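Box S2. Input/output pair 1.
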Amino acid sequence: MNIKDCFELGSVIKPHGLKGAVSIYIDADDPGVYSELDAVFLQLGSSLVPHFIESIDRKSVNQFKVKFEGLEKEEDAKRISKAKIFLPLSALPPLKEKQFYFHEIIGFTLIDESFGPVGEIVEVMEYPGNLLARTMHEGKEVLAPMNDETILEINRKEKTLSLRVPEGLIDMYLSDDDGEDKDEY
């Protein structure tokens, strides 16, 4: 399995007890969706190695106690501690109409309802309370907020994301003015 065909689900935190079990952290909006897993890929070095799950028990909202087949001792669990956990992209739960996975909109064309096509989305940037699409328009970076108010439509077939960007924001990014009043000099 290639890492490009997978998504990072979380990580192994540490051993749990002396019989090879581990505590894992699942980084998902709804970790319970993954409480019935039967196998995952662990990143060990540069390889993704399949590990089959013997048992999985929820410890808290995002943490689970997992017993993998073939791991019988604390030393076995220590060997996989801190490993990243991956699943195939096909294991992602389906989303509602205006929802998307960050990786899936990379390469989509961002379209503003007033400006028109802005550019190809090259990155999704996540800040506390802010989700931004980073695009390039004629060599200039444009950051556009993505939230329930600004997202108009996601067209997966056409590979477009239509937004209602706040008025003047795109023009601010594309302006040749560096913000200084040149008449004062």
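Box S3. Input/output pair 2.
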Amino acid sequence: MTADCLFCKMVTGAIKPDTVYEDSDVLAFKDINPQAPVHVLVVPKKHISTLNEFDTGNIDLIGKMFLAAGKIARDTGVAEAGYRTVINCNAGAGQSVFHVHLHVLGGRTMNWPPG
């Protein structure tokens, strides 16, 4: 954990997010600035700053993040209609909290190309 990381504070319980899913490896909560009717962030409980820091030692963790995303999509009713998952990597791509996180967005039509 990193003491000044917003998402680490959520993982430790110092800040209480609006949690929608949690297991031993990931925490998922509603985004405070939603860009869709369903907008949930899935974060690993282990602090990893960006997608660039994932390595073969994190393969299971990446899989668990995506499994959680699928469960969240089903639980929120957007799985069948469709949903988008996004991981922004570094500031140029829009990452504002440097604790890797997977966005799960649904409940509206997604345009292409994004952003």
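Caption for Box S3: The longest strand covers residues 38-44. The chain is about 20% helix and 20% strand.
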